From TrEMBL:
UniProt main location, coarse: membrane
Family label: Belongs to the Rht family.
Keyword annotations from UniProtKB, A to Z: Cell membrane, Membrane, Transmembrane, Transmembrane helix
Keyword Membrane (UniProt): yes
Protein name as catalogued: Leucine efflux protein LeuE
Species lineage: Bacteria, Bacillati, Actinomycetota, Actinomycetes, Kitasatosporales
Entry membrane topology: Multi-pass membrane protein
InterPro entries xref list: LeuE-type (IPR001123)
Spans through the membrane: 12-33, 45-66, 78-96, 124-143, 149-172, 192-209
Location(s), subcellular: Cell membrane
Record has tRNA processing as a keyword: no
Length: 216
């Protein structure tokens, strides 16, 4: 179908890959828990736009360029790792402020505050784009399911990308609505909110470290 081969295997692999935790999904969950469904979908839109750009770049051969150019790969890699580390520091600072806060009643009234000047769409978009491993993944995964003899390989990439985006929409929607349920618990318990924010910050530091050691 449209130059796509072994579609069931592709869909099975796609589901497993989508379910793996990563900085994109974690950030969407964090935004939904702190700011509600609307902001969660705003962050998710940033992820979807970023993924669409990466798929387009992969289809255009940019992934191969990154793979062949160690300097360019290193620039993108360390820029992405630095941005993730910056987000992690912001989360940990917010968590420290929660730990130092006093009074459960105050937590009930205000709930977990949003970071000053936070723009969920832009942050999620940048997190998605500054990830060379994602670009390399898209080309390495997609190419296995494109028939080399098909006359319109771009159409094959579009079909594969559409399936990937649908899976991402379903998964991130589940995370968003789960996050709003977590928000109710966060509003009741400041310690829970601080602990969750600390864990998110620690995970982002881990993502940054993993990306900084990635190789093409």
């Amino acid at each position: 179908m449209f130059g796509v081969v072994d579609l069931p295997t592709y869909l099975a692999g796609l589901v497993l890959i989508i379910l793996l935790p990563g900085p994109n999904s974690l950030y969407v969950l964090s935004v939904a828990a702190r700011r509600g469904v609307r902001s969660g979908y705003t962050a998710a839109a940033g992820v979807w736009c970023g993924d669409a750009v990466l798929m387009t770049l992969s289809a255009a051969g940019v992934a191969s360029l990154l793979q062949a150019n160690a300097v360019l790969f290193g620039i993108v890699k360390y820029a992405g790792a630095g941005y993730l580390a910056w987000l992690a520091v912001g989360m940990l600072r917010a968590a420290w402020g929660m730990w130092r806060g006093r009074g459960e009643e105050r937590a009930e009234e205000t709930g977990p505050a949003a970071a000053p000047g936070e723009r969920p769409f832009r942050r999620a978009l940048v997190v998605s784009l500054l990830n060379p491993k994602a670009i390399l993944f898209f080309i390495a995964f997609f190419v296995q399911f494109v028939d080399p003899a098909y006359a319109y390989p771009a159409l094959s990439f579009v079909v594969l990308g559409a399936f990937a985006q649908v899976a991402s929409v379903l998964y991130l929607s589940a995370l968003i609505f789960s996050g709003t349920r977590l928000a109710a618990a966060f509003r009741r318990r400041r310690r829970l909110s601080a602990g969750a924010t600390s864990a998110a910050g620690a995970l982002f530091l881990g993502f940054a470290a993993k990306l900084s050691t990635a190789s093409a």
